[in-house]
């Protein structure tokens, strides 16, 4: 037996397990519950767990690779992650009978090299520290930012797709592009901060507003250019199951109603068929007025081109709901661990999904694990959202460490399932 055939058999064995799980009635039930939440007609609160320290979680070798070829490993990780989640952290992630084949897409980027000092995190964790040096310092430097050139090697993409169909035929449905996420993220400030440094960005909006606006105009223009190219090439992942670690299922966009591959292909040329997300995490300390001027004013056109939108990440936004509400098509707004939940929920007033980000520090603390504190925190978020008729989702993310105690994560999931009323 050739090495390919051996690795194919490994993948088919894993795929059969995923296919069995995908056929369980709970999947369709959860699928419908996400659709209700995203249409502002929730059945119950939903919860999701993402961005995990996988190096700490692989206690019994469940995540160990057995395949050597990179493409086979690409598929193997999708399958092993799905099975691990199902066995240990059954959140509201829908397990489907779909697996994605990668697409051979190249992007030349912006032509600006990042200069940084990086401090690695704890072995097995997912967090490094970064200190960025300013490499864009003048208006002349802005002109050095290049227009990205995007292309697809269609022959290679087709080869990878055919390989996937050969491996998973009769077990899973294979689609191109799933998990690539081309172009949907509008975190422009995340890019700028790596070129200017976070502290310098904070001074810029006060001391150098004209420079900052020129930089923003340039960068948002290039982000739009990238999206134009992804549309032209038909690279959009229509029907992607997630948007920023939350369920994206909805009846308002195509891709969630068992459309054929031929039907999906025609939708991949327009961002109107997609979710987007934006954030300015370094703006945690700026006023609503400055957030509006240096972020939301530029995001307006970005959100216009998409069907639905999620806004926010780690920055506290409870005092900025009125500003974020200006964004066209915005449906979910992040409420980080540092918000006043009551204030944020009242400002949403039933118009958006209250996307609560519980504090991951409950899992990483060096002190004793306190499940009752977790339960109180999650129940408090659901109550604050319900008080003002906001659909609620609990999104545990940025888990840099569990203190090498993955059982905390598993118990967190059970607590969240109870708080969310999942039978």
Can you walk through the features of this model?
With 423 residues, the chain is of the alpha/beta class. The protein is built from 16 helices and 14 strands. The protein has helices at residues 3-22, 25-38, 54-57, 70-88, 139-142, 154-168, 188-196, 198-207, 209-233, 261-267, 288-304, 321-324, 341-348, 361-364, 371-387, 406-419, and strands at residues 46-49, 98-101, 105-107, 116-119, 129-132, 150-152, 173-176, 242-243, 246-247, 275-278, 308-311, 330-335, 353-356, 392-396. A six-stranded parallel β-sheet has the order 1-14-13-12-11-10, sandwiched between helices. A two-stranded parallel sheet has the order 2-7. The radius of gyration is 22 Å and the shape is globular. The model has no long low-confidence stretch (mean pLDDT 94).
């Amino acid at each position: 037996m050739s090495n390919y055939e051996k690795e194919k058999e490994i993948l088919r064995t894993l795929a059969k397990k995923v296919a069995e799980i995908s056929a369980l009635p709970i999947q369709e039930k959860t699928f419908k519950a996400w659709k209700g939440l995203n249409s502002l007609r929730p059945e119950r609160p939903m919860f999701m767990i993402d961005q995990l320290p996988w190096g700490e979680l692989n206690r019994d070798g469940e995540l160990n690779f057995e395949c050597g070829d990179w493409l086979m490993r690409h598929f193997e990780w999708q399958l092993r992650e799905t099975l691990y989640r199902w066995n240990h952290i059954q959140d509201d992630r829908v397990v489907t009978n779909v697996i994605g084949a990668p697409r051979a897409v190249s992007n030349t980027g912006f032509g600006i090299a990042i200069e940084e000092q990086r401090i690695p995190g704890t072995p097995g964790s997912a967090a490094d520290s970064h200190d960025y040096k300013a490499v864009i310092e003048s208006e002349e430097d802005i002109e050095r930012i290049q227009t990205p050139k995007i292309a697809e090697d269609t022959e290679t993409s087709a080869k990878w797709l055919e390989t996937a169909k050969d491996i998973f035929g009769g077990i899973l449905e294979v689609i191109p592009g799933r998990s690539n996420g081309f172009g949907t993220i509008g975190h422009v400030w995340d890019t700028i901060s790596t070129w200017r440094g976070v502290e310098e960005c904070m001074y810029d909006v006060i001391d150098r507003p004209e420079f900052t606006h020129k930089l923003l105009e340039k960068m948002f223009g290039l982000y739009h250019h990238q999206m134009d190219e992804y549309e032209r090439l038909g690279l959009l992942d229509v029907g992607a199951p997630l948007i920023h670690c939350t369920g994206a299922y909805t009846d308002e966009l195509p891709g969630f109603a068992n459309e054929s591959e031929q039907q999906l292909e025609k939708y991949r040329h327009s961002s109107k068929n997609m979710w987007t997300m934006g954030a300015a995490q370094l703006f945690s300390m700026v006023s609503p007025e400055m957030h509006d001027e240096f972020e939301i004013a530029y995001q307006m056109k970005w959100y216009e081109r998409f069907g639905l939108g999620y806004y926010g990440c780690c920055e506290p936004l409870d005092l900025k709901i009125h500003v974020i509400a200006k964004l066209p098509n915005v449906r979910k707004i992040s409420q980080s661990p540092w918000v006043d939940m009551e204030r944020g929920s009242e400002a949403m007033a039933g118009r958006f999904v209250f996307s609560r980000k519980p504090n991951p520090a409950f899992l990483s603390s060096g002190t004793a694990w306190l499940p009752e504190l977790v339960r109180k925190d999650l129940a408090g978020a659901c109550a604050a959202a319900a008080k003002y008729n906001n659909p609620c989702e609990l999104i545990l993310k940025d888990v840099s460490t569990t203190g090498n105690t993955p059982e905390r994560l598993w118990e967190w999931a059970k607590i969240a399932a109870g708080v969310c009323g999942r039978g």
